[in-house]
Design a protein that fits this description.
mainly alpha; Serine Threonine Protein Phosphatase 5, Tetratricopeptide repeat; elongated
Length: 210
């Protein structure tokens, strides 16, 4: 999958590499929501980087038959979305996640996975709108906030908004793995853009960019 190069300046490559390392170490663990990696970091991947598993066509056909026979089952539709997502066929995952959400609109993990898919098909505005739906279900959902920050930074070039998303994890879910990753993202962002977040750190003081 290709995307345009980022249009905002990051001092050096440390921030992109940091983000890639943090997110590369966090494989999506079902049934929890997946985490988007910046497309620019993916584009810069070196030969030998992990590739998505091939689509299990037989499993997809089996699940689709089940979905067609069980019109009110949100789970099988989410499973189909997951299958296509994990194979990085995001455009094919979208309709299944959407169908699952119609049947179970308060499933925050499916909603956030859908948002990630929108991001990967180059629709960050729609991705952020879906993220807002996820946060209306669970305002402190850490993986949703991680994704919100990534999409803000890499999809809409809103660095101050990304800082706020990640700071919310640090303050709202202290001591968790997500909080640790969010703090690393904040530190990487501030190393390239010291003005973002002001002089205070994510846990202590000033909020968004002045």
């Amino acid at each position: 999958m290709t995307r345009e190069a980022l249009v905002f300046g990051i001092s050096g490559t440390c921030f992109g590499l940091l983000v890639g390392w943090i997110l590369g170490s966090q494989q999506p663990a079902r049934p929890g929501a997946a985490v988007a990696a910046p497309a620019a970091t993916q584009a810069a991947a070196t030969p030998g980087s992990p590739t998505p598993p091939p689509l299990d066509v037989r499993r997809a056909a089996e699940l689709e038959r089940t979905a067609n026979s069980q019109a009110t089952d949100p789970v099988v539709r989410a499973q189909l979305g997951d299958l296509y997502f994990d194979a990085e066929r995001f455009d094919q995952a979208i309709p299944w996640y959407e169908a699952s959400l119609k049947l179970q609109p308060k499933n925050v993990n499916v909603s956030t996975d859908l948002a990630v898919c929108y991001y990967y098909v180059n629709d960050p505005a729609r991705a952020l709108k879906q993220i807002e739906h996820s946060l209306s279900i669970d305002p402190r959902h850490a993986k949703t906030l991680l994704n919100q920050g990534i999409i803000r930074a890499f999809g809409t070039q809103d660095l101050a908004g990304a800082f706020d998303s990640w700071r919310n994890i640090v303050e709202g879910s202290p001591g968790t793995e997500e909080a640790k990753r969010a703090q690393q993202l904040i530190d990487g962002l501030k190393s390239g853009h010291p003005a973002v977040g002001g002089a205070g750190d994510a846990t202590g003081g000033k909020g968004g960019a002045p």
